[in-house]
Amino acid sequence: MFVVKRFSSWAFFIKDLWTFIPNDLRRSFYFLSIFIFLNSLSEVFGIASIIPFVSVVSSPDMIYSQPALKEIYSWGFFSSHINFIYFMGVLTLLIIVLRNSLNALLTFSKTRYAELVDCAVSEKLLSQYAYQPYEKYVERNSSELVKNVISEVPTVIKNVLFPFVDLLSNIFTVFFIFVMLVVVSRAVSLGVFVVVGGAYLIIYSFFKSRLSSNGLERIVNNKKRFKIAYELLSSIKELRILGKEGYFLYQFRKYTRRYSMNHARALTYSLVPRNVMEIIVFGGTILLVLLLLNVSGNVTSLLPVISIYALAAYRLMPAVQTIYSDLTKINFHLATMRNILSEIKLGETYVPATTKSNPRMSCKNDIKLSGISHCYTSRRKWVLSDASLDIPFGSVIGLVGKTGSGKTTLVDIMLGLIIPTKGAVLIDSVPLTPLNVTDWFRNIGYVPQTIFLVDDTIAANIALGVKSEDVDSAKLLYASKIAHVSDFVENELPEGYQTIVGDRGLKLSGGQRQRIGIARALYNNPSLVVLDEATNALDSETEEVVISNILSSNAGKTIVMVSHKPSTLKKCDCIYVLENGKIADHGSYDSLSLTNRYFDSTKIVDASKNKPESF
Predict the structure, then answer these.
(1) Helices 510-523 and 485-492: angle between axes, nearest 10 degrees
(2) Which residue has the higher pLDDT, 529 or 300?
(3) Could you tell me the domains of the chain?
(4) Number of C-beta neighbours around residue 384 at 10 A
(5) Which residues contact 514 (CB under 8 A, 6 or more apart)?
(6) Cβ pair 515, 546 in contact under 8 A
(7) What's this model's pTM, rounded to 2 decimal places?
């Protein structure tokens, strides 16, 4: 009863996984199941084929006494019974070779199928992460998401799905061999079944709870070691200066050793029974020989029976051990499978990829944020409260405020990355919704505070996500000129736009990375350009050039700048001041400098000009 209940539980999870497998792989599984059935049947023929050969070798007179053997011998191809025995030996060998070749082909088929499912599920999970709501994404640790896609999905396929298929294969094999043994000797076969099956069931029941808890510990330890490795490699510069690499290495070593011990225990639980069962099986075989010898007293007549039981034991023991090993693997990794299935079944909000055929959402009059209030699901505090902005088309708007005032959330809502808890974003009076947000994205050029660069060429980073053969050179050069990228690319880099920037752009300076990010935002000629402190890594001279270039190319563009630099804010038509999630004030730079307390409280002295400067 326990085995049936446990098997039903696994089948339930396999059924869930099945829903995420493409149709072509589902069809392949049906053919694979037929192959498994036929292969298991061939196992019986492989074992049974040894009986005639051993019988003829031990008693040549059987050639004349057995009707089937006598009929074959009468075909006239054999000059003596010795030649007939040679024929029987070659035929038996061919059957065994064919049977093992079929088994090898099945092993390849099962492995190939598992790898294809691995690809399909990994792609499905990565797609789920890529298209989940942005708000959910920022609340997760990216190292955990990478771990799930790259490490945990293959672990589930290798240690749950593949063993499950292998389990079916070996169950068929054991069943057919057992049926064959029952035909030879019912009493002995039932005894073997009770002893071997009972022993494995007792051992598995003993280790079951240990495997489950060990599997849960493995998930925690694997999650922590991925997180620590990611943090170490992502902040190596700061850690090198602080001399704290050793702390992260110690933490990584601690959780990696725990993770390794989880696997060591699981492997031990799966292999220990083999030693016990060898004693039982081979000891039982010896006892069987002695018992039959005591009953009949004729060793020669017992040789075929002994041979078939010995060969059956040779085949059965690995099959039964594999069944047990598969059960322990599945039980150990079942928690991981639950986790992956829950990740795939997260409430997915699919956003179709933007293509050139998608029309841009019209933005000819204004962008309005009306009564925006927002509270993140992981927090209790309202980040924004009844914030309203009116951004006329073609204007230059500034956003200022202290850290935590809600600037980033307001920008994310304006971009369409976050749906506000209350209020609406209106584009020419059309509400922004998940249904039209992709078309809205095509209007936007966004430059974040921290620029992400892939380990590729400068050209590939400016035209991010565009195949190299599809990069528009005119657009690339135009965007580079405005962002002041062409200056250092053409004068300082021998390979020009084909220069490899390195991991996260570490071969370039912070200012160069920021200018590439600005060029990327301008590449598709957006109608809305959002600069989120996008020039904080630039020197004042370069910043002046870049901002002036962007503003001079402002025909048909609306610009929103989050900044704390007076030189940048003075160029804005209107500045909105955020305080505690609310729009506290708005107006021109000059008017706010005279009337707004935030402007007044953050004035500093610019030593080069010896006069007050803000922010």
Answers:
(1) 120
(2) 529
(3) 23-344 (1.20.1560.10), 360-443+557-615 (3.40.50.300)
(4) 27
(5) 447, 451, 534, 535, 536, 537, 538
(6) yes
(7) 0.73
